[in-house]
Design a protein that fits this description.
- The structure is a single chain.
- It is built from three helices and two strands, in the order E-E-H-H-H.
- A two-stranded antiparallel sheet has the order 1-2.
- The relative contact order is 0.09.
- The chain has a domain of 61 residues.
- Helix content is 57%, strand content 4%.
- The longest helix has 19 residues.
């Protein structure tokens, strides 16, 4: 079972229902990749024929990656909402 006192990242449920510990270095890597992905979302702010292929590729990759991981879906939409709110300020 998950040990809340351990110095690890968030708990993730494994296939057997047990919790998998995520090391801090892995969590940092995940956060870095998420930040990079959100930087790429700026492509959707541009208009024009030259950016359309890049937008379509990004849209397909987001769909593909989110389809692989339930936790990623939740984290993506939470982060997307937070970043949208931050941009409104």
């Amino acid at each position: 079972m998950y040990d809340a006192s351990a110095s690890v990242g968030p708990k993730v449920s494994g296939e057997d229902g047990e919790y998998i510990k995520i090391e801090d270095s892995v969590l940092t890597s995940v956060q870095h990749r998420r930040d990079l992905a959100f930087e790429c979302l700026k492509l959707f702010a541009y208009d024009g024929e030259d950016v359309v292929p890049h937008q379509e590729y990004l849209r397909a990759q987001i769909s593909l990656q989110l389809g692989k991981c339930d936790t990623c879906i939740v984290d993506y939409y939470k982060s997307k909402h937070q970043r949208t709110e931050r941009m409104r300020l």
